[in-house]
Amino acid sequence: MKNGPWMFLSAQRRAGTSACACLCLLIFVFSAAAFAGDAPNWSLLDPFQRTMTRADFQLRLDRVFSPGGAFQKFLAQDGDGVAVFDDEQHQQRLYHLQFATDTRRVVKRTFKTLEDLPALKNPPDKPLRGLRIVLDPGHIGGEFARMEERFFKMNNGPAEQEAVQNLIVARLLAARLQRAGATVLFTKNDFKPVTDTNPEQFRELAGKYVQENIAMRPDVRALGELAREAFLLDATRKRMELEFYRNAELRARAALVNERLRPDLTLCIHFNAASDGDRPAPDNRLMVMIHGCYTPDSVDTPQRKFDLLWKLLENSHPTELAAADAISRVMGADMKLPPEPVRFGPNSTAVGNNPYLCARNVIANRLYHGPVVYLEPYYQNNPTTYARLLAGDYDGERAFDGQHLRSIFREYADAVAHGVIEFYARHTLAAPAGR
Ligand SMILES: [Zn+2]
Q1: 72: CA distance to ligand 1 center in Å?
Q2: Is the separation of the CB atoms in 325 and 352 below 8 Å?
Q3: Distance 161 CA to ligand 1 centre (A)
Q4: 145-160: per-residue pLDDT in tens?
Q5: CA of 397 to the centre of ligand 1 (A)
């Protein structure tokens, strides 16, 4: 491993992260293969028949879900709806969706949309009463932190685990949201995996992946025989671990969210990191993600086409966008964090005329039903942030680089709670008496 002023105790750089790549966002890269063999149950989309107009469907697709046109190639519009095909030649039909006309059907959802919120008629001190909010602290941590490549240190200083930081924030945030009346639920509240699988179970799948995707690479074929054997064993082990801590873990969390927790809003809690060679991040920024922006390689299987249609038709987008817009603006102001530099590409698109926000297709916000807001403030490899993370949670203020600063965890939790409360209060409070 290269010795730099900061490093993740992993082969992070071998993964080829470029300048300012967000490490948490690597999630989407690895998600394709995991679901490739699954056959979706298309009848699960039947409740959404005739619930969305053609114009709404097309606009949502073009602006948010498939702004690059990747998914539209598999669609054929007809008189009353649209046919979805597995191939661009439109030979293998997967599903037919009928659009709503003037007699739009109402679908029963597990989450409250913007239109449902005014019925809560909440008192001013309990704007979140009647709402179920899931906190999803990112990564497993503990004994799995090194495997997950979320084990971080700068300048040979002490190591910190992102899972620890995320969990501290989640616990502080839970208390704040509960005080405002919310029912708060956790996907996890310790350092145990939610999945009951283990890496060994994925040996065969990982071996197949490595043979098909890595073994044939010219740089790997150019290795000497023993070096190549060792390289492929290492690559297989890494892939087994990835299938466990990323794909299986997030699928298990999704099953928990979708089948048992059934939230009105899910908040995915992370800390960001900037990758810019060996240089520490000079400042801190905020990025908040909502779901969308499928690329050609993320609509290449029936399962992934199904996932896109589910998220589009469940119609969580307007509520998700409104929540993310409000929360990100409050976080930016309260935490004094500027947005990340604009770097939209094929897998990230601007939404909502808000510089903090982007639409991106990551496993969590694809598999979790209902509105999901994915938070990525700070850079762990900013020297002041690193020192604040190592300081842990504390009362009052402490000095860092000549500035008197609060606990970074309270700063984060307070800002998110402020944003969530401000957002819901706009919609849930009962009108004052006499009006
Ligand atoms: Zn993370």
Answers
A1: 31
A2: yes
A3: 10
A4: 999 988 888 888 888 9
A5: 26
